[in-house]
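ok new one. same drill as before - structure tokens go in, u give me an amino acid for every spot. 151 of them this time. try not to just spam alanines like last time pls lmao
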């Protein structure tokens, strides 16, 4: 079973790098605590703004999102969504199963008014600095739109 691209090492290293770049972040890593601690020990020196929340299960990249969410109640995605719903964290970021992440966000988080489903964001470098595209690869679902002329 694949957990994510080069997980957990690449994810922990990238998260710690983000802490070094931003003084205003507190990082909450959710997953198998022993694996996260082992990666932090490999890094050696890192800011003290790291918290670990244990989750005993992982949703693999090859798992069907809805089945995995039903069967794995203590997965890192479910625990992360609980933290977000309880407003214990401000954002959820996952490098794992995108479908499962979008599904858990839709099932467990209260959406913004007028927003029916989670967006997927991608950061792209440009000559003028990075830009964020939202809903890259989203499924288009046509809907009826009523327009009125206000003139």
């Amino acid at each position: 079973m694949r957990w994510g691209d080069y997980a957990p090492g690449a994810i922990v290293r990238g998260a710690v790098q983000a802490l070094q770049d931003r003084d205003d972040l507190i990082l909450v890593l959710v997953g198998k605590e022993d694996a996260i601690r082992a990666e932090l020990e490999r890094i050696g020196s890192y800011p003290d703004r790291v918290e670990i929340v244990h989750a005993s299960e992982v949703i693999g990249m090859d798992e069907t999102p809805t089945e995995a969410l039903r069967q794995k109640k203590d997965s890192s995605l479910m625990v992360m969504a609980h933290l977000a719903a309880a407003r214990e964290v401000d954002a959820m970021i996952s490098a794992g199963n995108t479908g499962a992440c979008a599904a858990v966000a839709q099932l467990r988080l209260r959406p913004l008014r007028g927003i029916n489903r989670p967006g997927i964001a991608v950061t792209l470098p440009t000559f003028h600095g990075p830009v964020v595209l939202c809903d890259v690869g989203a499924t288009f679902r046509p809907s009826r739109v009523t327009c009125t002329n206000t003139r």
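The mean pLDDT is 85. and btw Helices lie at 9-21, 33-43, 65-71, 76-85, 98-108.
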